Amino acid sequence: MVRLLVVLLAVVALIGLAPAAPVPKHLLPKDGPLYHPVQKGTRWVYLDNGAEYHYELTAADPTASGTTVVTISQMKNGEPTPYRKVEVSERGLLWTETVGIAFDTPACLLRCPVQPGDAWAYSLSRPNTALARAKGTMKVPGTETVEVPAGKFAAVRVDEKRAVLAPGLPDTNLELTSWYAPNVGQVKWVCGKRERVLKSFTPAKD
Asked: Has UniProt tagged this entry with the keyword Signal (predicted)?
């Protein structure tokens, strides 16, 4: 029973992907914008089927290769709990960790520079093979104007087909769409009848 509960929690974590602070000019890449803030203290509030969720960028760690690994925490009663880590660079967004568990094989959420029609495959796995894995494809139709409670954004649309593979359970096939705005991150996410939209954004203080 305990093992089944762990697997189910892992499936929920993989299904829920889920997030504009101006980036200082000296941090902006020469060939395009960053599609996620990299400043500690940045905050997002999302509406997910009517429920409100609060997130904060609690750490930003530069790497030797010039990227920045940002830690996004979900805020519950003012306390941060691990949500995910994303590696941010002019090459795009790489999802490296969820709910405190690092992936053996991270997933590219967005590839830059953005090119309409661009497509790529990905797979997600973890050190513990008893947990759920996922694989799928991403495709970029182009940039669209997206209006959410936080405002109107010119955002890159990414269509995703994902198979969640959980030991002892039938495979779960999903179709998802995410929209990413420069220097903001995810402004909208849709999976079936579930919709997550950005309600508000608070830039990090200088």
From this structure: yes
